Amino acid sequence: MAKKSSIEKNNRRRELADRLAAKREALKAVIMDQEAPIEERFRAQLRLSGMPRNSSKTRIRNRCEVTGRPRAFYRKLKMSRIALRELGNQGQIPGIVKSSW
Fold this sequence. Notes:
Layout: H1 4-32, H2 38-50, E1 73-74, E2 79-80, H3 81-90
Antiparallel strand pairs: 1-2
Helix pairs in contact: 1-2
């Protein structure tokens, strides 16, 4: 089980990124627009760099919904390999059967 503070920090990052996503995209569009004046592009770059770092999507870490484990994460199921195995053995996940041969 991951530390509660790490899980909460990641949740705050996810919330902040969702809230400021439209603003970041608008600023990035101005920066990438080659037709815009250089002063306007520079102001947009300064505003983007002034935004909170945690509002960037790249700062979000994929974590298991069950345990909070940050590694060995399956995106499709939103859980780690360990939680997947435990829940699969208990019969909690449809379609997952313990193999034997």
